[in-house]
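Many introductory courses stop at the sequence. We go one step further.
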Amino acid sequence: MQNVVLMGRIACDGLIPDVSIDHCERSLSDLMDGDLLTKNLKLFRRLSRRE
């Protein structure tokens, strides 16, 4: 989950040009599924101010 926290802050602050919040969410769904994905997306969206 530490990586998701970092990704959320980077996405929120726009620190990497051309890497959007949607791109990060798609990447997470490529790496995990089920309850783990749900929990990590919730955390990511909270930190990226999308939820």
